[in-house]
Amino acid sequence: MAETKSSTKDTQEAYTEETSECEVNNEKPPDSIDNKPKSDKIDILLKATPNTPIMKKKKWSVDPDKKIGSVIDFIRKYLKLDPSEHLFLYVNQAFAPSPDQIVHNLYDCFGTDGKLVLYYGLGQAWG
What pTM, to 2 d.p., does this model score? Predict the structure, then answer.
């Protein structure tokens, strides 16, 4: 068991944006590196890009183990988009995360002030 803890610590030091041992083993990272809110959910702030319908409610609490694809599906349903309409999601107005990316991984890397800011749009804006 001590070997697993050592391995986890080594992995956290060599943490990459794409994967970590915590993700592979479905374990939560230790409190020392975990900067998410005390609740079991992660707050996501959804902001619209130009020429995109604006959601009335912008702040949502999401299960940290959800994939970004489920967030995209939720936005599509909320905005009542046709299946033929494209929806793009961006982190920090910089890049489009992969739909299989886990919410808590993005929060750990890009979360600020206790929330993860995501931009959504019907057309490509960044990245």
Answer: 0.66
